[in-house]
Amino acid sequence: MHRRRYLASLSASSVAAFAGCSSQRTDGPVTAGPPRLTVEGRWVTDPDGNPVVLRGVSLDDPVWSLEHAEVREEEYWDAFRLATDDDAGWHARVLRLPITPRSISDAGMDAVVDALDRAVELAAERGVYLLIDYHASERYDTSSIDRRLRSFWDRVAPRYADDAHVLYELFGAPTEPAAGGLEAWRTWRDCATPWLSRVRDRAPETPIVVGSPAWSSMTAHAAEEPFDHDGLLYSAHVYPSWDPRSWEAAFGTPAFDVPVFVTEWGYTTAEAAEADAHLIGSTAEWGEPFREWVDAHENVHWCAATFGTRRQPAMFDADWTLPDGDDHMGALVKNWLADRRDDHRPGRATPIPSGEGSPPASPESVRIEEVHETRATVRWEQPLDPDGDDVLQYRVIVDDREPSTLRGVERATELSSLDPDREYEVRVTAVDERGLESDPASARFSTLDRTRPAATIPRTSSNPVGDEDGAWSAVEPHAADMLLWTDRPLENTITWRALWDETALYVRIDLTDIEDWQDTFAEVYLDLDNSREETYDGENDLDMIVPRGGRSIWQSANTAPISDGSSVTTTETDGGWRAEFTIPWREYGVRPIVGHRFGMDVHTVVEEDGERIAKFGWFDETDDAWVDPRKFATVELDE
C-alpha cells in the first residue's frame, strides 16, 4: 500500500481529533492534555500520586522532514496521529520530538516554533505526552553550544511551561569530554547546571530529561552525584553496540535511585540504508532481551527510535508497512506498546512499591568452576525473596575489587585478570526490585600455577606467508610426527612453526618424505582464548584442515565458523608440500599481546584410496583433540 493511502486510512476519530488545529499557537493551550507529572524519588507520578511510566516512540524532526526529506506537511502529521491511534494498534503514550540545530539554522526559529505549536496542540488532542528534545550530538564544552542552548530554551521553555503534557529534554546527545568516568560526569554537571537553571526558571513545573557525556551513556553517575534541581529524569541511549551484560550496571542500578528514561533505542538490518554498525541487531538476540530487561525495572521509561521511514533505525518500509523478519524492530515495538498500554497510566490507581521490606536471601550454592591460571567461573542459584519480589541483579565482588553487576536472569560469570597461583574470595549478593541487597554468599579458590608453555611464538614485523627466506627462516620448527595410530610403518617428517603480529596468527606446516600413494591433510587446532572447555565453544575454538593442493580451509564438524579473513595457501616442495594458515585475531574476538596464551595442536592425516590409514600429531597423544580442546597444548606469544 502506498504510504499516503495508508496514512489516509486512519480511523475517522483520528482525523476528527485534529480538525481545527492551528499551526500558530494562541495565548494558551487550546486543549487540555494529560495531567502534569512530577518526580518523586525514582518515580514519576500523576497528581494523585500514582506511578506513571511513559512508553512511546521518537518521531523525525518535523522541520527537517518538511524542509529536506520531501515529506508533505499533512503526511508528517498523519504519522504523528498514527503513533497514538489505538484503533490502528499503536498505543504510544509519549512522543519524542527531536529538533536539530540544522533545522533551526536552515528554517529559522519561527518555523521551529510553528511546528512545536502544532505538535503540542495535537499531542494534547491525542491525550499523550510530548517530549521536546534539543537534538544536538556534539561537544558540550564549547561557547557555540552554550549560546545555542540558551537561545533555544529561552524561546521554548516559557512558551510551553503551562502545557501540563509537555516535557523537555535538555540536550539530546552530549559527546565530549567523556574520559575519566565520574570526573567527566562532574565536568558535564558543571556545564549543564546553568542551562538547567535557566530552563527551570522559565518552566518551574515541567519535568526535564537530562543526558550525559558519551551520547548519554553515563547514566550510572546520576545516582551517585545527581543534579541539585527537582523534577529531573536521566536519559540513556541504548543500541546494539551496547553489550547486554553492561545494561544492568550502566542503566539498571541508577534506576533504583532516580527515574531513567531510555529516550533512544532500536536496531535495524545491516542492509538498511545509512545504517551504522552500532545499530545492527535482531529481535531475537537484542530486541527481546532488551524488552525483558526494561520490563524488569518498572520505573524505566522509553521511546523507540524511529517512528518513520527514513531516519535509521526506521520502523517502517517506504510504503509505511511494518517489515517482517527478525531483523526489524517495528513489530516488537507495536506489540510491546499494546501489551503495556494500561500499565502505569495517569489516573490508574497503582501503589508505588515501598522501599521497605526484607532483602532476598543470599544466593544459593555459590561454587567455582573451570579454574585456570588467570581466570575462573563462578556459578550460583537464585535465592528466595521473603516478600516474593523478583531478583533484578546480582553483584559479584572478588576480594576488594569493584563489583561486577549482572542481570537477574544470569547465574554465572567469568572472573578474569587474576594472578596465577593465588587464593581469592568471591562474594555474590542479590538485589530485588525494591533495591534491597542480600547478605553475601562466598566461596574461596586458588588459581593454577603458571606452567611453562609448550611452545613460544615470536612476533614478526611483516606478513611471512610465502616468504621462505624471510621471517620463517629464523623460527625454530617443532616436530609434529608423533605417530598416533596406523596399520603400517610410515616415515613421514612433519614440522610446524608459527609467527604473530597485531593482525593475525600465522601457522606453517611442512610435510616431507611423502610417498606418491599418500593423500595427506594438514590440520591445526586452536583455542584462541585458552578457555579450555570440555567441548568446542562455537566462538574461537577452531579445527582447520587443508588437503595437499587445497586453496581453502575445510571446517570440521566441531569447529567454530571459520571467519572470512582466515585463509590458507599450499605450496609444493621437494619431497612434499607446505601449508601456511592465516588466522585474524580480531575476527575471533582476541586482542594479541605479549604473554597471551592459547591452546594449539597440529595433526596430519594420511589416506590411501580415500581411507584413513594413519595420523601424526605434535602434542595430544590420545587423539581426542578433535572433540576436546582441553587436550591442546598451551602456547604463548613472545617478542
Task: Write structural notes for this entry.
The chain is an alpha/beta fold and 639 residues long. It has 3 domains: 303 residues, TIM Barrel (Alpha-Beta Barrel); 83 residues, Immunoglobulins (Immunoglobulin-like, Sandwich), CATH 2.60.40; 183 residues, Immunoglobulin-like (Sandwich), CATH 2.60.40.1190. The chain is 21% helix and 28% strand. The protein is built from 13 helices and 32 strands. It has an 8-stranded parallel beta barrel, surrounded by 4 helices. Strands 20, 22, 25, 26, 27, 30, 31 and 32 form an 8-stranded mixed beta sheet that branches. Strand 15 and strand 16 form a beta hairpin. The radius of gyration is 31 Å and the shape is elongated. The N terminus is likely disordered.
Write a brief caption for the model:
Helix content is 21%, strand content 28%. The protein is an alpha/beta fold.
Number of strand elements: 32
| Shape-level CATH architecture of the largest domain | Alpha-Beta Barrel
- Portion in helices: 10-25%
Could you tell me the CATH topology label of the largest domain. Answer: TIM Barrel
Mean pLDDT: 90
Spell out the CATH superfamily of the largest domain.
Answer: Glycosidases
